[in-house]
Amino acid sequence: MLGAACVKQLPAAPTPEAVAPPGAVAAPPAATTGRLVVDVVDGPSAVHRVHMAAQPVAGADGRVRYRFSEAPELLCPASPCVADLAPGNLLLGFPVLGNNQLETELVHIDPGTTVYRRSLSRYEDNSGALRVVGIVSTSVGAAAAITGIVLLPIGLSDDSDGLATGGGITLAAGAALLGFGIWAIRRDSPTYRPGSANHFPLPAL
């Protein structure tokens, strides 16, 4: 949904400042692990760890293929939180404000203590009557424009002034309705503002 053409994408949220949440201490993590402090600028939020689950699918040729899907598990119920994890890449899942989707972000876990601060993405849908009018105008305008495109060449080739005139008027009216409909849909579209993140080391005391 967030990637749909009818959703207007806004500039990304400002990058969070490199400021650790209160209480974050750069204590040494357990051996062979890295310590990640997760903080959400927008307030306490659930943070998920996302695994890629493989599901076998039998093909028509008898061969088994695998379909991968996201399988989130709760890392912490509310940020800020601390997790000791094995070094390497990790998929974190964050909520999107305004809907029930989960957005994933790839984070690299380093030895030592690092802070990952996140501004959440935001989806807003305040569309109303103008959007409905735009959808109807686009449909009617497209149909009229196609009709005009068909009639105009026929009228010109047969020297039929009436058919050519009707085709030209229909084409012009359809193009105008189509243009207005596209404008109205974009004007009254839902908006999506991508989030942003800042991942930085926490200096030792």
Give a summary of the structure in a few sentences.
With 205 residues, the chain is α+β, with helices and mostly antiparallel strands. Helix content is 27%, strand content 37%.
The average pLDDT is: 81
Ranges with pLDDT <50 over ≥5 residues?
none
How far the N terminus sits from the C terminus, by CA atoms, comes to: 45 Å
Q: Structural class from helices and strands?
A: alpha+beta
Strand content: 35-45%
Largest β sheet strand count, sense and barrel closure: 4 strands, mixed
Shape estimate: elongated
| CATH-defined fold name of the largest domain | Immunoglobulin-like
Strand order of the largest sheet: 5-2-8-11
The CATH class label of the largest domain is: Mainly Beta
Q: Write down how many β-strands occur, each being a DSSP E stretch of 2 or more residues.
A: 11
Give the second-level CATH assignment, the architecture of the largest domain. Sandwich
Count of discrete structural domains? 2
Helix and strand run: EEEEEEEEEHHEE
Number of helical stretches of at least 4 residues: 2
Looking at how many chains there are and whether they match, the oligomeric state comes to single chain
Radius of gyration, taken over Cα atoms and rounded to an integer in Å: 27 Å
Indicate the percent of residues in helices.
25-40%
Describe this structure in words.
- The protein has 2 domains: 31-54 and 67-124 and 192-201, Sandwich (Immunoglobulin-like), CATH 2.60.40; 129-187.
- A hairpin with a 5-residue loop joins strand 3 (47-58) and strand 4.
- A 4-stranded mixed β-sheet has the order 5-2-8-11, with no helix packed on it. It has a 4-stranded antiparallel β-sheet with strand order 4-3-6-7, with no helix packed on it. Strands 1-10-9 form a 3-stranded mixed β-sheet, with no helix packed on it.
- The protein contains 2 helices and 11 strands; from the N terminus they run E-E-E-E-E-E-E-E-E-H-H-E-E.
- By secondary structure, it is of the alpha+beta class.
- It is elongated.
